[in-house]
């Protein structure tokens, strides 16, 4: 027996075995036929699809050929145009190079001129800064002069008051001097009366003797009462220290009046210069004002 075939004990088993084999082979044949039919159907579908794709590819190839021909024509036209543009560009580049050379030379000239202008600008800025500083100093001095002028005007008002006070003190000094002269004469009379009284007490009374100061004082004091006492107190002699203090006060006031007159003259000079040359419009007048102010 061949390999793969079992040994049968009787014919019935062999029949059953071959029948089963026949059924299996028939089933395999049916399956193979089905697969063949499916394969043929798929092949037909694939063939139809491939034919459609082939038609599309051929149509696309024709379109691409047409596009290629058109692009070749455009390429030729562009090549010719490019040659023309290159020639024009060469001419333009040559012209631009010449213009660039001219502009470079002009630029170098302008840069040199700009450097000179910057140097001049720096010099002018330094001059301007110095001028600004000088003007600030002048403004400061002018403000000080204005403040001093206002102070002098206040002192001028005080001068008027001091002049009135000095006049009053002069009047009082004149009155004091006259009173001092009167009291000096009165003290001389009192000393003469005292010397006469002393002679009377030593030599005795004389029929033609002058009354003593005591009796005179009683005669003066008895009729007037309090008015006589006030007159006696008012005619009391001034001391030396009082006279010196009064004279010192008068001298100080006179010196103050002289200083105020000097400041007033300086202020009038400044006003006169301001009227001639206003500092706001003339720097020279401003400088003159400052010089007169600091000299004053």
Q: How would you concisely characterize the structure shown here?
A:
With 296 residues, the protein is mainly alpha-helical. Helices cover 89% and strands 0% of the residues.
Overview of this structure, please?
The protein is mainly α and 296 residues long. Helices cover 89% and strands 0% of the residues. It contains five helices and no strands. α1 (11-203) packs across α4 (240-276), α1 crosses α5 and α4 runs antiparallel to α5. The protein is elongated, with a radius of gyration of 72 Å. It starts with 10 loop residues before the first helix and ends with a helix. 3% of the residues are buried.
Level of helix content? over 70%
Rg estimate, integer Å: 72 Å
Count of alpha/pi helices? 5
Please tell me the overall pLDDT.
76
The largest β sheet comes out as: none
Shape by Cα distribution: elongated
Structural class: mainly alpha
- Poorly predicted runs of 5 or more residues: 200-236, 279-283
Distance between the termini: 160 Å
% residues in beta strands: under 5%
**Helices and strands, in N-to-C order?**
HHHHH
Q: How many strands in all?
A: 0
């Amino acid at each position: 027996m061949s390999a793969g075939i079992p040994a049968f004990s009787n014919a019935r088993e062999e029949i059953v075995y071959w029948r089963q084999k026949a059924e299996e082979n028939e089933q395999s044949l049916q399956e193979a036929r089905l697969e063949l039919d499916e394969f043929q159907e798929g092949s037909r579908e694939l063939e139809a699809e491939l034919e459609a794709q082939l038609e599309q590819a051929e149509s696309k190839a024709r379109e691409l050929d047409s596009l290629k021909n058109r692009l070749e024509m455009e390429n030729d036209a562009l090549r010719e145009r490019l040659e023309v543009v290159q020639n024009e560009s060469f001419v333009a580049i040559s012209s631009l190079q010449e213009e660039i050379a001219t502009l470079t030379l002009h630029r170098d000239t302008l840069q040199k001129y700009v450097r000179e202008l910057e140097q001049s600008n720096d010099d002018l800025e330094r001059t301007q800064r110095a001028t600004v500083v000088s003007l600030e100093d002048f403004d400061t001095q002018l403000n000080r002069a204005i403040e001093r002028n206002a102070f002098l005007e206040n002192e001028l008002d005080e001068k008027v008051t001091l002049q009135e006070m000095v006049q009053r003190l002069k009047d009082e000094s004149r009155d004091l001097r006259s009173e001092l002269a009167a009291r000096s004469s009165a003290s001389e009379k009192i000393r003469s009366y005292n010397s006469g009284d002393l002679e009377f007490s030593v030599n005795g009374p004389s029929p033609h003797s002058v009354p003593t100061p005591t009796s005179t004082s009683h005669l003066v004091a008895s009729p007037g009462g309090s008015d006589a006492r006030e007159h006696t107190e008012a005619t009391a002699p001034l001391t030396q220290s009082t006279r010196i203090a009064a004279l010192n006060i008068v001298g100080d006031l006179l010196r103050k009046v002289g200083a105020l007159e000097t400041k007033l003259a300086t202020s009038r000079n400044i006003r006169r210069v301001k009227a001639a040359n206003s500092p706001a419009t003339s720097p020279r007048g401003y400088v003159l004002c400052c010089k007169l102010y600091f000299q004053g």
